[in-house]
Amino acid sequence: MRILILGGTTEASALARSLADRRDLACTLSLAGRTADPKPLPLPTRIGGFGGAEGLAAYLRDERVERLIDATHPFAARISRNAAWAAGSTGVTLLAVRRPAWIREPGDDWREVASVAEAADAIGTTPRTVFVTVGRNEAAAFARAPQHAYLVRTIEPLDGALPVPRLTEIQTRGPFDAVAEADFMRGQGVEVLVSKNAGGPATYGKIEAARALGLPVVMVRRPEKPAVACVEDVEGALRWLAE
């Protein structure tokens, strides 16, 4: 069976490792290429886009793909839409792996917004020290509020994407535990955290830390995704393949 995994998440990486030794499967992992130095995985890997939904459909046909697994980031709405369209137009069976979103817990002080641009406005006009964890590609949205002091954590360097007077860049890769996150926020004098509701345990430490410190969180809600067959984790995807 020929399988294409649309990756870029911990779930996609775990699935790739689980399927690497399956002789009955011919699996390929696809990465968008937003991370310059992705961790190597034991599957043939292609990097880069397909050229939209029609390009993905052409790839599925040309490579005789039989199963398509969308294990992309919860905020990668475009590729998920493209995957649904391409699978539907080619007759390829599609499964989405969608980790559950974080849920507000007692003690959480969240202000939920629909976009990163709204998050920049939700911080307010009074200058504050803001810890931003929305990724490099959308950090520029905070240039509209240059009065704040920003600590921005990304995997890739910002390369000038956020031109504000007070900016501290933190270039690192998770996971991050709650104790370390609390120490960091306390030491830097963080007054508000900005996060996407990515779900999963790898970056949940910052949410736990904000709760423990009594800090407000501006939380960006997930975008809508296509209504397709889905599971919450790698185990569910493996069961689906077995069936």
Automatic annotation (TrEMBL):
Transmembrane segments: none annotated. It holds the Pfam family CbiJ. Keywords: Cobalamin biosynthesis, Oxidoreductase. Pathway: Cofactor biosynthesis; adenosylcobalamin biosynthesis. GO terms for biological process: cobalamin biosynthetic process. It comes from the Bacteria. GO terms for molecular function: precorrin-6A reductase activity. NCBIfam families: PRK08057.1-2. This is Cobalt-precorrin-6A reductase. It comes from Methylobacterium radiodurans. The lineage of its organism: Bacteria, Pseudomonadati, Pseudomonadota, Alphaproteobacteria, Hyphomicrobiales.
